[in-house]
Amino acid sequence: MAALIEVKNLKKYFKSAAGMVHAVDDISFEIQKGETVGLVGESGCGKSTLGRTLIHLNESTGGQIFYDGRDVTTLNKRQLVEFRRDVQMIFQDPFSSLDPRQTVQDIIEEPLHLTGGMNREQIRERTRELMDTVGIEKRLRMSYPHELDGGRRQRVGIARALALNPKFIVCDEPVSALDVSIQAQILNLLMDLQDQMGLTYLFITHDMSVVKHISNQICVMYLGQMVEKSPKDELFERPLHPYTKALLSAIPTTDIHHPKQRILLKGEIKSPINPGPGCRFASRCPYADEGCKAGVTLNEALPGHFVACNKAKEINLL
Amino acid sequence: MPEEILNEIVEPQERDHDHERNGKHGHGKRGHGHRHGKPKESVKPGSLKYVWRSVSHNKGAVAGMVMLAAIVILCVLSPYICRYGYADFNITEWYQTPNWNHLLGTDQMGRDLLSRVLYGARYTLVIGITATAMSAVLGILLGAVAGYFGGFVDSCVMRFLDLFQAFPTLVLAMAFCAVFGTGVDKCILALGITGIPGFARLMRANILRIANMEYIEAARTINCPTWKTILRHIIPNSVSPVIVEIAMTISRNGLTSSSLSFLGLGVQAPKPEWGAMLSEARSYIRDYPHMVIVPGLFIVITVLSFNLIGDAFRDALDPTLKD
Amino acid sequence: MQDKMNQASLFQVKNLTVEYHSGDSIIHAVSGVSFDLQPGETLGLVGETGAGKTTIARASLRILPEYSVERVDGEILYNGEDILKMNDAQLRKLRGEHISMIFQDPMTALNPVKTVMSQIAEGYKEHHKCTQAEANRRAIEMLEMVGIGADRANEYPHQFSGGMKQRVVIALALACSPKVLIADEPTTALDVTIQAQVLDLIKGLRNELGTAMILITHDLGIVADVCDKVCVIYAGRIVESGTKEDIFDHPTHPYTQGLFAALPDLEHDVPRLKPIEGLPPDPSQERRFCDFLDRCPHRCRACKAFAKDSMIEVSPGHYSRCWRTGSEEA
Description:
The complex is a heterotrimer of chains A (318), B (323) and C (330). Chain A has 318 residues and is of the alpha/beta class. Chain A is 32% helix and 24% strand. Chain A has a domain at 239-318. Chain C is an alpha/beta fold and 330 residues long. Chain C folds into 2 domains: 2-98 and 178-325, Rossmann fold (3-Layer(aba) Sandwich), CATH 3.40.50; 107-177, no CATH class. Helices cover 32% and strands 23% of the residues of chain C. Chain C has helices at 2-6, 53-60, 88-97, 106-109, 116-128, 132-145, 162-174, 192-209, 220-226, 244-249, 254-262; strands at 11-22, 25-37, 42-46, 69-78, 81-82, 99-102, 180-184, 212-217, 229-234, 237-243, 312-315, 318-320. In chain C, helix 5 (116-128) packs parallel to helix 7, helix 6 packs across helix 7 and helix 7 (162-174) packs parallel to helix 8 (192-209). Classes of the chains: A alpha/beta (318), B mainly alpha (323), C alpha/beta (330).
């Protein structure tokens, strides 16, 4: 099976007053057709930037992104328009991702109008169809975003993303602004859509239980770098990187009788501005030593399970 | 109790409300509108209807609009309803305090103050509105250009406007008046130029704010061309605060034009501009205070009306005050 | 329930009702909420957005936005004194010294133009009438207690990361050793690993100082971790209350059950989540029947025959607002 998305050594740096922010630094991974790759990490680790760079909302600083075998970073304007029909994004904040002055119908119709090739009747029909698919009542057609609750707004955002029949969708924290009961509705919807339309997702989130529920593969990011990459079950059963271990142990659980042994991290988070070589987690890592300052690479420690830690073998007794 | 039985005895009207709920995916399918009887009407935020609904519920704004409407109507009708012309002088009736013949009294030349003050309203309104329109158009344009293009263009435009803002408004307006000379048109020009930086700043800040919203990013993902994004998403969402600023600037300009006239720089006596009337009357303030009070009161009422209306617009348009 | 409330509670809320006005309508934010807190105990208030959790917290310190409050009824007793009837001087003494609060967003709780040390010292100085040097010493002590070195005491809030800022807020809240700490979503804005640190810190300080705590959150996992007692709030009412074990082992109210079912489970894989259908009721509508009626999977005609104002005791100390509680084991 050919990978739908293949990222090679992708870099995205931002200029800031203090220096270069290494938001995405030398990241490589693949997404197979029809699967969901979960991208987890904490705020500021560059996961949103990675998602946006992947669909070329940001210009990348270095590296390559292959979509269906074609390098996205070298596309010209016309090809980019073509590419954008195939890839879409669902945004985190259902409050700011919808234009407050457009009705639900306007929002969903806009991509259809812009693409052309459909007459008014067809567009109306397609909009009705999309609203039905994502579960928005028809009577809300003329409503404005501020009149809808968070869950419905997110459904409108999903409908807009689906309008052009994309193949690949970047979901940037699509449920983190929602309440638990509504979150479950949206997660179910996203999974149903994937089954029906064969969509491929990059699911960005900070919530480990959500990512476990929805993903096939999981990538863990820390300060712009990928620290671990593995199939879902493998990662939850056998996290290899000390950061992943801490992350998993920190998830609050509702099982009151078997409290988890938490790994509490100490130390300050390193600044992403000109971070220099070496493991970026070293400042908080309980196992770090002088050798960690030299640099790390992502290695396959177990079949299909990659980890960027020099001491992974030692820590995990592999 | 087994579930089937329980579901069976759900009341019929309950089912009515819920007829949609067992939809394709079993998501919740009820909205807030329908559930409690009459469906809510959809109103576009910032639309005229929405603003009107909010403004008309604001007592201050209604009072302001009534006062303003009264002034405008009286001003237009003044040649027909006033017994005396604004420039008719009659030495035999000078210095009269308000009485039945002259409702607001007369001045040192026996001119009827009511006629003068009502005629004078047109100066204040015309200067206020025209000057504001001029600064709004130019300011919005400059601000939009600065905000959208950013970088060097932004720096140039904003530093140039900083030059204007380095002077107090009134001082700057006085300087322009001194250069251009006196008269209504010169006064409009002076106030119009002075008001540009305020609008430009506001518009630029708005553009910058809106351009960072996720829906602008979303527009890019659906291949919305840049010019369409600006026209369809950025500008419509940026204008609300500008509307508020317009109302406020009209009132400020009315006040400044009176100040200029008072100082002898704007509209000159004997034209019945309120500021000029004040200026003329100030020598008689001890003996005939009504000559000062009348135009002063009209200035206050007009400015207050515009401010009240502006405040109501601010409440109606400010997204941070919306639920 | 009454018997238990008559015991000397440190902090007790009786029949609290808060209504806001918004345009032409009245928002019933909190309706008849009662709970009590013993010294050293931690109570979790769990509920979704708009359930009225924050309103309860704000009412407890009398910091409700006055311009929009229509009506506040009931009693909030601290050591037997009604906070709702206190005068300004009493309130000033109460806030900070006896009850303090941690807000969700650490940035809004800190003054951006003052160093963190001077902010902590200021409150301490006001309540303890001590010298500036003493107050500063206390501030540094507090900062060290929450894991911020003395070398950073003279920095401004914007120089701290989110987690560090929340630590400063905690130090600020605990500087005067309050008896009751109200924490309103203290970790919602933080990352998981930072959240773990902050929760650990809060737990440690609570145990060390013996502070009673009201923890407001939407995250059942945090409640499981930190709290002794739990009140589940839905649409401004407590729908279920009891000890942590009661709620987590035997949830009886359909809403509580629904909340647990909707959570993705880390231990067991499920193909589909079970969301709670529909939406919370419109808070501006007066509801005659159970608030959860529209969304309840077990609703039936009989639900409309029962008064919604009473709670049923499932087991000692465990109450549920669902009338079916007694008749059927969930």
